[in-house]
UniProtKB/TrEMBL annotation:
Keywords in alphabetical order: Transferase
InterPro entries in the record: Amdntrnsf_FN0238
Keyword Membrane included in the entry's annotation: no
Lineage: Bacteria, Bacillati, Actinomycetota, Actinomycetes, Micrococcales
Name by which UniProt lists this protein: Amidinotransferase
Cross-referenced Pfam families: DDAH_eukar
Region (Disordered), start-end ranges: 311-343
Gene Ontology MF, one: transferase activity
Amino acid sequence: MSAQAPSRVILVRARSFVPNPATAADNAFQSEVPEGQSVQDTSQRALAEMDAVAQALRDVGVTVHVFADDDHTRPDSVFPNNWLSTHAGGYVAVYPMYASNRRHERRTDVLEMLKSTYRVQAIVDYSGLEPDGIFLEGTGAMVLDHVSRVAYTAVSHRADTHVLERFCTDFNYEPMAFEAVDSEGVPVYHTNVMACVGTDVALVALELIRDEARREQVRQRLSINGRRVVELTEQQVREFAGNAVELRGRTPEGRKRYVMAMSGRARRSLRPDQVEAIEASCEIVAVDIPTIELAGGSVRCMIAGIHLDPRTDRVPEPTATAEAIDESPRTADGQDLADQRPA
């Protein structure tokens, strides 16, 4: 069993989707909606892309919990990894968000599902730091090595080092903070657009870490347990190649399989040698999500991994069926029964 790659995930199916104007100023990856494309059309395209990601994960044996979101005031709710993370031992973290219109993405129904379906010992809520202007946007701001217990963090106003230290103390991680900027000197707004840590492979744009000594420290720390480091270019980062996540699924025969989920755009940006390095330890699952990527995030941002043990005392749902949920995904309330293979 890999501590790094979760076999269960949370996705949010947002009915109303547009790139968030409140985050455009510091998110260099964000783009405008094509001229003439209506909000309704943009939302419908995004919905189809969300469903495609969910189905692609189910197809490789990952259990997917889908939460519907009908609130048009939450344009970035499709990215739940910014407000929520889960951790072995039964711990959940809730994070302070930079953009005020993102703060009500935090949902009690998601937390209640986790408590009822998985073993949760404690929820640590850092959102009370928002009035003080202190933010740490979850596994967007941090890329976590759950095996070696390291929190890789590109420092920005979305990733404050004070709350990073607090998180690391509470959850027993080693903070590894660094400054990362692009070729124009613009800070990387979220670490997970430039780095992905898997069990045996890591993707990282080391060239964006300008301090050479720190860059080498990050390289060595990533590879200390034999993990292979695949270096990304700045251009590949702009194609979202760093915004990937390793997950654990199952083959139709029930055998474990490890997959690296990313967007089709990200996959196409990789060189053959990089693909070979990734596929030495896990297969690539790529889904095209061009509409969602307008918001400045990609597949990794859409996925909140569940690193919790399932409850064995949970009463099975007697009425829901896989067929009903698959045919009408907008009715999903967080319990996706389309794939309930044992972990």
